[in-house]
Amino acid sequence: MKLFLAVFGKAGSPFVSDEVVRYVKRLKGSASPLEIVELKESKRDDKLKALAEEAELFEKRFPKKDFVRVILSEEGKLMATVPLARWIEQKSASNIVFLIGSAYGIDEKLKASAHLLLSLSPLTFTHDHARVIAAEQLYRCVMVLAGHPYHHV
């Protein structure tokens, strides 16, 4: 199984990039490596057209037939780390992509195609904070599944 963290646009600061890369490097060579995929954020002024354009780009890169889709969304399900790790374990026969939407959010049809709508928190985060939190949580889930003491279970 390979994990993907798909995001629209580039990181807003070197700190964010460095933090995310730190978790990618830690998972390199593991049974569940993590790859960050930066997708082009739409520049359209029309929100619905921008979301549709981004959804099409995501669909091309991550076809539903080839990936389990987890879409990060404020209305998604709240899960603690260990239950999320167990959910990932149940899907481990497939590659899993976690998507962080653009500034406009995520197309409703794309949300409907998700295997899981997941909320990181009831709080609102910047896209950069969501990147770091998602990367760390994916690393933490892999450590839980490996029985590693990182999570202090």
Describe this structure in words.
By secondary structure, the protein is an alpha/beta fold. Helices cover 42% and strands 22% of the residues. It is built from five helices and five strands; from the N terminus they run βαβαβαβαβα. It has helices at residues 14-27, 47-61, 81-90, 108-112, 127-146; strands spanning 3-8, 34-39, 67-78, 95-100, 116-119. The longest helix has 20 residues, at 127-146. It is globular. The mean pLDDT is 95.
Major β-sheet annotation: 5 strands, parallel
Q: Tell me the number of helical segments per DSSP (H or I, 4 or more residues long).
A: 5
What strand order characterises the main sheet? 2-1-4-3-5
Oligomeric state of shown chains: single chain
Q: How helix-rich are the residues, as a percent range? A: 40-55%
Look at the helices and sheets and give the structural class: alpha/beta
Average pLDDT taken over every residue: 95
Give short descriptive properties of this protein.
153 residues, single chain
Brief rundown of the structure:
The protein is α/β, with parallel strands linked by helices and 153 residues long. The protein is built from 5 helices and 5 strands.
Topology:
Layout: E1 3-8, H1 14-27, E2 34-39, H2 47-61, E3 67-78, H3 81-90, E4 95-100, H4 108-112, E5 116-119, H5 127-146
Parallel strand pairs: 1-2, 1-4, 3-4, 3-5
Helix pairs in contact: 1-5, 3-5
